[in-house]
Specification:
By secondary structure, the protein is of the alpha/beta class. It folds into 2 domains: 371 residues, Alpha-Beta Complex (Spore Coat Polysaccharide Biosynthesis Protein SpsA, Chain A), CATH 3.90.550.10; 85 residues, no CATH class. Helix 11 links the parallel strand 7 and strand 8.
């Protein structure tokens, strides 16, 4: 008797409605059943061996080239901004999930005993006034008949967290990270989205002060994104060409349970999950950009620090266009110049020389999830890295004749991510597409350039907003 099909007719119909072919679904299930081998590191990239340092004597010419590209209207700023703020507030959500009453005194006692989560909670409460969203929280508490400072003094942590994160209050846990206030100014707080727009205005040049901005956004938030972005652009004196796009349902991926069967929802339908930032490669291609700066939504700084960031963006773009000119008709694949910062112990990926299945070496941005860190040799290479990937890319997306590259042709389809997840309390193995700046760009012409650490100021958790670079 033949085995039952892994996908039923109803499954195929569901997949088709999402724009996913049954062939693609079976390919994903095969990858989940037999994951590709881990990436094989040869050595870390270092200065002079895969990483370029732009000497001060070169800066003037490169800045002029970067300026020329922006004046000519060639530059697009592409920012993935559809991610929720859930991870940003994970330490606070974990505390809120506890059933027992939340009191600051109890958290202080646990923190004194070495409880790291409690220490985070105590730090958050002690510095609550220093966050740019403190005034918004005060107004939300006032709507409940409460006073912010009295609530802090009383030690009622649950009331604070429910008002900040819950749907009856500000609802920050469910908002896109782009819409969370990051920095405080005399005229009010600015969200990460607004800071990105005002930063991009520093790259804009020419008599029209025009700037093209492409954000990926979650469905249902388009109007708020547009209103905030256009308001920020007006403050900076720039005429923005704002374009919003969505992570398409056709890029969702399958997961399997601990027995290797397709994971399902309670109604029996297939559980389809967002396919990670690699799913946005199509958005980047559909943007039609000539040159694109790609960066993370949470890597922004206040106005007092923006000049250095803008200067280095123009340097990267200028270096990109100089490479384009030097390669000329020999450039037959997409080109990217990736800024990398000296490693200061940040979690995440970095630049490495990688040995492919065919034995060839290439430079790649590699994440820890791609490497077998149980292999002593591979772990030693990983730990010897001198630089870190801040996601600071300048990309050339058209060939020497001005035709856009088909970006999907340069993906390493084996460079998928398979991660352990949970759904309704059940463990799952979930698949993500090759990362946007990892496997999705594996066959691009890649150059790494060292950039100052001061240009990298990510906000991965809410407590990162207490770092000096994010404070007034």
């Amino acid at each position: 008797m033949s085995a039952a099909p892994r996908l039923s007719a109803a499954d195929v119909e569901q997949l088709a409605a999402a724009g996913i072919s049954s062939v693609e679904a079976e390919r994903q299930l095969a990858l989940l059943a037999a994951p590709p081998p881990p990436t094989r590191l040869a050595r870390p990239c270092r200065l002079g061996d895969g990483i370029v340092r732009l000497e001060p004597a070169e800066h003037a010419a490169l800045l002029e080239a970067g300026e020329a590209a922006t004046v000519a209207g060639r530059l697009t700023v592409f920012v993935p901004a559809s991610g929720a703020a859930t991870r940003m507030f994970a330490p606070l959500l974990a505390a809120l999930a506890e059933e027992r009453p939340l009191r600051l005194a109890e958290a202080q006692r646990l923190a004194a005993g070495g409880d790291a989560a409690a220490a985070d909670l105590v730090r958050f409460c002690r510095h609550l006034r220093d966050f740019a969203f403190a005034e918004d929280l005060g107004r939300a508490l006032a709507a409940r008949g409460l006073d912010l400072y009295q609530t802090i003094a009383s030690g009622d942590v649950r009331q604070l967290l429910e008002t900040l994160l819950g749907p009856e209050g500000l609802g920050y846990a469910a908002l896109p990270k782009a819409l969370i206030p990051f920095h405080r100014y005399p005229d009010g707080p600015r969200t990460a989205l607004e800071e990105q727009v005002i930063e991009a205005a520093r790259y804009a040049s020419g008599p029209k002060r025009a700037c093209r901005l492409c954000f990926t956004v979650p469905r249902g938030h388009e109007e708020r994104f547009r209103r905030l972005a256009e308001g920020a652009a007006a403050k900076s004196g720039v005429q923005p060409r704002l374009e919003l796009s969505h992570q398409e349902a056709s890029t969702d991926t399958l997961a399997v349970d601990d027995e290797g069967r397709p994971a399902r929802c309670a109604d029996g339908s297939l559980l389809l999950r967002p396919g990670g930032h690699g799913a946005l490669l199509g958005n980047l291609e559909r943007s039609g950009a000539d040159l694109a700066v790609v960066k993370n939504i949470d890597n922004v700084v206040p106005d007092r620090l923006k000049d250095m960031t803008a200067r280095w963006k123009k340097l990267l773009v200028g270096y990109l266009t100089s490479l384009q000119a030097a390669l000329g008709q020999h450039l037959q694949r997409p080109l990217r110049v990736c800024g990398v910062v000296p490693n200061q112990g940040q979690p995440g990926g970095g630049p490495f020389w990688v040995r492919g299945a065919d034995g060839r070496l290439s430079v790649q941005i590699v994440e820890s999830a791609q490497v077998d860190l149980n292999d002593r040799e591979q772990r030693a290479i990983w730990q010897a890295a001198t630089h870190f990937n801040p996601v600071d890319l300048a990309c050339a997306l058209r060939d020497p004749r001005g035709r856009p590259y088909a970006l999907g042709s340069y993906v390493d389809p084996q460079a998928v991510f398979i991660a352990g997840k949970h759904h309704d309390g059940r463990p799952l193995r979930a698949l993500e597409h090759p990362g946007l700046w990892n496997g999705a760009m594996a066959d691009w012409y890649t150059v790494f350039v060292e950039v100052p650490a001061e240009t990298f100021a990510p906000v991965k958790t809410v407590l990162d907003l207490l770092r000096p670079e994010h404070q007034s």
